[in-house]
Structures are given as C-alpha cells and as structure tokens.
Amino acid sequence: MEREVFIEVVYLAASVLFILGLRSLSSPATARRGMFQAELGMLLAVVGTLVNHEIVRYDWIAGGLIIGSIIGALMAIYVPMTAMPQRIAISHMFGAVAATLVGIVEYNNVGGNLGNVTMAALGFEVLFGSLTITGSFIAFAKLQELMPGRPVIYPLQNIMNISLFLAACGILVYLAFDPTNVILFYTMIGMGLLFGVLMVVRIGGADMPVVISLLNSYAGLASSATGFVLDNSILVIAGALDGASGFLLSVIMSRAMNRSFANVLFGGFGAVEATTEIRSAEGLTVHSISAEDAAIQLAYARSVIIVPGYGMAVAQAQHQVQELASVMQEKGVDVKYAIHPVAGRMPGHMNVLLAEANVPYDKLYEMEAINDEFDRTDVALVVGANDVVNPAARNDSGSPIYGMPILNVENAKSIIVLKRSMNPGFSGIENELFYNPKTSMLFGDAKASLTALVGEVKQV
After folding, report:
1. Which of 31, 59, 72, 395 is the most exposed place for a label (fewest CB within 10 A)?
2. Exactly one of 293, 387, 396, 445 is catalytic; which is it?
3. 372 is catalytic
4. Measured between alpha carbons, how far is 306 from 388 in angstroms, rounded to an integer?
C-alpha cells in the first residue's frame, strides 16, 4: 500500500511540473526554466514507474535506459540547431513506435478479453501511433533532403486519403465491439502506416513546421491512450498535455500561414488551386552591394529591423547578428528583430537561436507587433529569410505561399538582404523582393558577411 501511495504522490508531482513547464514555455523569458521543470517532471515519472510492483526484472529496463540515455546525450551534444526540426521529427517517430509496440504487445497478451472501452483506446493508440511513425519519417526525410521537399501530387489524392482514414476508423469501431479479429487489427495498423505516408508526402516544405507540430500532437494522443490501456495516470496526463498543446499550436500556426487546417490534416484537402503561373525572374535584375556600403547604411540609420531566417540557422550566424546589433546600438541605432511565426523549419526556431546568442527578449517582436514599424524603418536587414518576406504571398495567386501573412519588409525605406545565392527558398519559388529597386543583395556566407559588417560598422 505504501508503494502505491508513493507512486501516486510522485506522479502527482510530475504532473504539476509538466503543467508548470508547459506554462513557462509560453514566454521566451521563462522557456529555459520550463524545460528544467519538464525534465524534472519526467525524471519523477520514470522513478515512479520503476518502483511499480508489476515489474519482475530490471535487466532489460536498465539496458534500455542506458542505451536511450547514450543516444539522447549524443543527439543533444552533436545535432546542430539547423538539424533540430528533423531531429524532432525522428524523435516523434521513436515515441510513436514505442506506443504502437506497447499496444500490439498488450493486444497479443489480452486479446479477446479486452473490454469495449479499453479496446477502443488501444485501437486509437496503435492507429495514431502507426500513422505518426511513417508520417514522422517522411517529414524527417523531407527536412533532411533525402526526398524532395515539394508536395508529391497523385490522382484522387484527397478522396484516397480521406477514404483510407475513414476505413481505418471504421475498423477501429468494429474492433471495439469484437476485439478477437486479429486480421482486422493488423490491417488497421497497416492502413495507419500507409496513411501516414500519403498524408505527409502531399505537404510541401513551406507547411512543414505545422506538420511537425501536428505529428507531436498525434504522438501525445497515442501516449495518452497507452496510459489509459495500461492504467498509468502519468502517461494519460503527459500524453494529453502533449496532444492538446501540439494540436493548438498546429491550429495557431495554420492561421498564421493563412492555411486551412484541413489542408494539413488531409494532405492538400482544401488547398487553393493555382490559377496563374508563378512569376519568373526573367528580365529582372538585382543590385549587389559591398560590406562597406552596407555598413554605411546601417551605421547612419536611425532604426533597423533585423529579419532572421533559415539561412541564419544554416550559417550558425546568430552570435554575429547579436554582435552587429550591439555595435549599431552603441552608435545610437534603434534595433529590433522581426520574428515570423514559421521562420525556419520548426515553431520558435528563430527565438531559440537568438536566445542562444543572448539577444534580449524585449527586442524580439512577433509579426503582428512589428509589421506596422517597417513603414518608419530606415533599413530592413534580412538575414537568410526568404518565403516569409516574399511579396508573392500577396501578389501572385498562383504561388504556393499565396495568402500566407508575411513581414512587411518591402515597406522599409531601404532593404539589405544577406544571402548565399539567388536560390529559391523552401517553397521553391522566386522572391520578387530581391528585385525590388530598394533592395541591395550582400552575397556570401551569412556568418562571414555579418563579421565583415561588424568590422566595417565599427570603423564608420
């Protein structure tokens, strides 16, 4: 009895820490504290589970803990921030694999003795777990560029995807009343695996941050169902928090990108069809600028808005961005950062990088708070951002990013873009901002260009 009381107390403490951690993650100023709270909560949850009286031997558990800890530590140490989105995607896959395997083992052990409600939870667990496995792997492959990031189009895709998902759900309902049909159980798992592939291959790179958040939600829901099947309260609570927060974040990000949420759920269902051809850059010219000339503009500006993007992450140039901002501020320049909600390849990508470089939180402005400032800004400094500043989102109804809210960089008095080359962004389209008469392009590696700018601004 004392052991059960101890477990429940530990689980309660872990649940409180999970909730506090999630609450702290809502602000960049408290995000690091939130991570520590969540880590402590997970440690307590593991400790509480390890003292369960149903455990009969610890050798396999110890082996799993050691191997998992080593893998996790190596990933944390050696995976660069630029690869964090695909690392998260593959972590979702591993979590979904665990939930699905637990469901399969439980079904094989208990089988026809499962109650209707328990079987429904177990079926939900393996269905959403299986589609998360393959969906996460496809997202990883796209982000890692093992396969094309553009949407994969195939005939009758919306009808096929929705029909497949509804058929799997129908099998789930049937199994809830007749758990003994083993063939249908594994058929449902196979359909879930197939649906995960078909769902994500249809989604383009521009929507990938939403996909990652949604897959996180699916993994959380599968874990919560696992907890219900195993009568484990901490799994139910942690999975529900993960699932609900991931789902809400997906909805928020879809709105930020002006995307139909059904587009993400069903891989293109409800997507805007192209009505015109995407504009070509043929006949247009760009204005190249040197670091010396760019430094003069920055040093004598009254206000500068820095717009970071994935190119900054690739170059690991966040520290140089912060150094340049500090140098400009010493010269009396008002410097702000404009953060688009989907800049980079995962939610909060730019916030994490800039926080790593100790950029003050009060200098980071969300899109809604900063967009009106561009009209009054002397220089907009774009560091590796592309799709989130592309006017095609407003002007070209045939563009895959049409309708997505963007930062109003084109309204600044002068624009300096740091870019390695004229290659298009993740959506694969030209950026007409680069051909704007007010825009000057500083070509080269972002870190090297920013280092040169720091030195030149200091000498002005």
Report:
1. 59
2. 387
3. no
4. 13
